[in-house]
Backbone:
């Protein structure tokens, strides 16, 4: 599902894509994830989708 701003609401889906594609080189941007190599995150993405996301950041997206 997408939020009104176009962001994906499912961090589990983003982590699934990261597990399958460690360098983000197969299909960058799938599931509204970063298009940058090695999962570098653009500032517009929610904190929960970034590499340095804390468990609290992820919980705030899931709820």
Residues:
């Amino acid at each position: 599902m997408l939020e009104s701003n176009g962001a994906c609401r499912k961090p589990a889906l983003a982590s699934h894509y990261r597990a399958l594609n460690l360098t983000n080189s197969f299909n960058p941007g799938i599931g509204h994830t970063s298009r940058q190599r090695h999962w570098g995150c653009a500032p517009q993405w929610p904190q929960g989708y970034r590499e340095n996301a804390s468990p609290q950041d992820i919980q705030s997206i899931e709820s």
